[in-house]
Structure formats: structure tokens, C-alpha cells
Amino acid sequence: MQGKRKLFWLAGAAPVLAAALGFWLRPVACFNGINYLREWLSGAQSRSVQVAGFRVHYVVEGPAGGPVVVLVHGLSGRAEDWRALAPYLVKAGCRLYMPDLPGYGRSEQPADFSYSVHDEAEVVVGILDALGLRKVDLGGWSMGGGIVQHVAARHPERVRRLMLFDAAGIREMPKWDLRLFTPTSPAQLDQLDALLMPHPPAVPGFVARDVLRVIGNNAWVVHRALASMLTGQDATDGLLPQLKMPVLIVWGAIDRITPLSQGETMHRLVPQSELAVVPGCGHMAPLDCASQVGPKAVEFLKR
Length: 303
Description:
It is a single chain. The chain is built from ten helices and eight strands. It is an alpha/beta fold. The protein has a single domain, classed as Rossmann fold, CATH 3.40.50. Strands 1-2-4-3-5-6-7-8 form an eight-stranded mixed β-sheet, with helices on both faces. Helix 1 crosses helix 2 and helix 4 crosses helix 5. It starts with a helix and ends with a helix.
């Protein structure tokens, strides 16, 4: 009887131990799985479309007949970066599309793609074409903000309203170490988190190890994108005054990646724009301060 009890205990404990070991070895994959499950439970759908000969993944949610909003993530980002902001837009009745740009998230990483802002912008237009989205409300965060500025300037007939969240684009050299975007040590990862967030959470060592592994696997994409951006060829200083659609500019007051001064410059260059500054928030405003950003975006889209 004692032996049977031990066998039952071992049989019950084995899956738990295996799951714990899996989490310890690959916590990033576990966190991703939780995010994907959360998306599915919220009614979001994971889909893919072919653009320029390669597969682009996107997440779509919200009522099918609602006004279409497309949100474009930033450098090293993915569709799930919008998870905190998305519920506000869906609740407001929007049909929300969140693509993974080529090279990121669950999209392909074509070896012969430039990963420049210019070419990523053409992919965004290709996504609109492939999905039959003729005119949309378009938003972008960080590098994604630079991308959507190019879309709006080159294809104004496709953009009803434009939202820029802590957006890149202004021709200004970063004042921080760009190598931190592809950290190779826990110390560098901590430095990056401190740049992104005013009060970054502590990251356990085993999680940091796996995050660095994933970053290392994708570093070549980030390096190629950064190299293109640093040429200044995709700066938007000259494009912004051409914009005629309503523009909402949302900025974390203490953003250290793209400082508020850049948001103020964008505001001056786009006379019809509105600048909303989020107190106490950094570069991650749409994620960390969604309770403030969400209502501002909804109010802008409902006008």
C-alpha cells in the first residue's frame, strides 16, 4: 500500500516538476504562452497574411463592423505590446488590427529585407491592401510612430486620423548607448529597463538569462534597423508639415528614449496636432500608463 501511494504521488508530481523545469529553462516562452492564451480568452484572433512574398502575423479583435484602427509597434516590439491599451479601444467599439512587423513577433524574418523605417512603412501599406482596409485610423509607438508618419505622408488617402505614441522620427542623435537595445549581460538589461521605465521591476536571474538569449537570436534584425535609422534618411522633420489629417501626439513626460522635447517639436511641425503629456510616465506610456493613455486615444478617435 505504501509503495502504491508513492507511485501515485510520483505520477501526480511529475507533470508539475516538468512544468517547473520548463518554466525555469524557458520562462520567455511560458510568458508568451500566457499572453497568447489571454488574447484568445479576450476574443482576439491570431492570423497571418502574405505581404511582399513573406508571412506577416497580426492580431485582430473588436466588433467586425467597428471603425478600423491599426497599431504599429516599435523596435524589438510585437503586437502584444498593445495589450494594455487594446481593451480601451475595443470597448469603444473599434475593430483593432495589431501586426507584427517583419522581423518581429510571430512574423517571418526575411534575410534580404532592409528593416528600415521606409520599407516597414511599405509593408504596413501592403497589410492594408491585403486585408482590404481602404482607410483607417493609424497609430504607432516609438519606431512604429516613425513608420506611420511615413505611411500618412505618402498615402494620406489611407489615413483618417493619426496617433503617435512616444514616436521616433525627429532627426536627433540619441544621447544614450545604442548597444543597450541588444543587451548582452544582466547589467545592460537593467540599464535598458531603466531607460524604458521610471521604476523598472526586478528581473530574476533565470528570466534575465532567457531574455538575453532571445534578444541575442534577434539582434541582427535590430542592428540592421538601427543602422538604417542612424543614417537619418528616414527622419520625418520634412514630412510632418505635410500632414493634413487630425494628429494626436501622446508622450510620457519623463521619456528617456525619445525625450518629450521631440514630441513638442512634432507638435510645432503639425499645426492641427494635439499634444497630450502623460505625467510620471516614460517611453512605455501605452503599456505602463494605459489608464491615462487609453481614454485620451478613445476621445480623439470618437471626434
